[in-house]
Amino acid sequence: MKVSFLVAAHNEEATIGAVLDAIDRLDLDRQVIVVDDGSTDATAAIAEGRGATVIRQPHRGKGAAIRAAIPGIEGDIAVIQDADMEYDPAEVPALIEPIARGAADVVYGSRLSGGRPQRAYLFWHLVGNRFLSLLTNVLFNTTLSDMETGYKAFRTEVLRSLDLREDDFAIEPEITGKVCKRKLRIYELPISYYGRTYAEGKKITWRDGFKAIWVLLRTRAER
Ligand SMILES: Nc1nc2c(ncn2[C@@H]2O[C@H](COP(=O)(O)OP(=O)(O)O)[C@@H](O)[C@H]2O)c(=O)[nH]1
Ligand SMILES: [Mg+2]
């Protein structure tokens, strides 16, 4: 089975090389698609130097970047991989295992189910992530612990069929709402989280949290 890594990257020159090197160390048949939208640093050049397929586009956000990667997927399984080393590629083989085995359509790597190293920080992010997961569970009658996680793996056909529209971080609630609505087999398993601070380049903000509420409600209400 081939695995396609979809890497949205905006000004991640400090970490993109380490992320791609970590993917390189995996014993997996794989493809790496980096979407650099409007970085003003060496992100794209570093990714090209590592042999990744690089798509460049004007700055629109993580959602636009993930969507731009989808048409080029060659793998049977697609994994969203952040470019910032908050999520360790060494955990991807475990993440995709339920899909490879045919048990799951979608697997979420959870930072909030315990059992793996988690950086202790950003109290209001934890509250926000718990709240958004609770809202997801109430709206869609499911039991996810971390709907905002950056580690989401899919059977490629499933990802292709989601008809994603969001350009920014709202892609996370849009994906979650749509996979829940489709009654797909969703699994989650614990992953590590090497969280970074805003000073280290984190980009998601409280505004994205409020927008996530709206996108979950809207997705629930759509036909
Ligand atoms: N291409 C692209 N990637 C982005 C953009 N904003 C964030 N990303 C990437 O999305 C990933 C997650 O961003 P981050 O700020 O760490 O958010 P968090 O991990 O959800 O808190 C990282 O790989 C970022 O480089 C963007 O505007 N364009
Ligand atoms: Mg991050």
The SS-based structural class is alpha/beta
Low-confidence stretches: none
Distance between the termini: 34 Å
What assembly state would you assign to the polypeptide chains in this entry? single chain
Chain-wise SSE layout:
Blueprint: E1 2-9, H1 16-24, E2 29-37, H2 43-49, E3 53-57, H3 62-69, E4 77-80, H4 92-100, E5 106-110, H5 123-140, E6 152-155, H6 156-160, H7 171-181, E7 186-190, H8 206-221
Helix pairs in contact: 5-8, 7-8
Describe it:
With 223 residues, the protein is of the alpha/beta class. The protein has 8 helices and 7 strands. Strands 3-2-1-4-6-5-7 form a 7-stranded mixed sheet, sandwiched between helices. β1, α1 (16-24) and β2 (29-37) form a beta-alpha-beta unit. The longest helix has 18 residues, at 123-140. The structure holds guanosine-5'-diphosphate (GDP) and magnesium ion. Residues 82, 84, 86, 150, 202 line the site of magnesium ion.
List descriptors:
37% helix; seven-stranded mixed beta sheet; 223 residues; binds magnesium ion; binds guanosine-5'-diphosphate; 8 helices; single chain; alpha/beta; globular
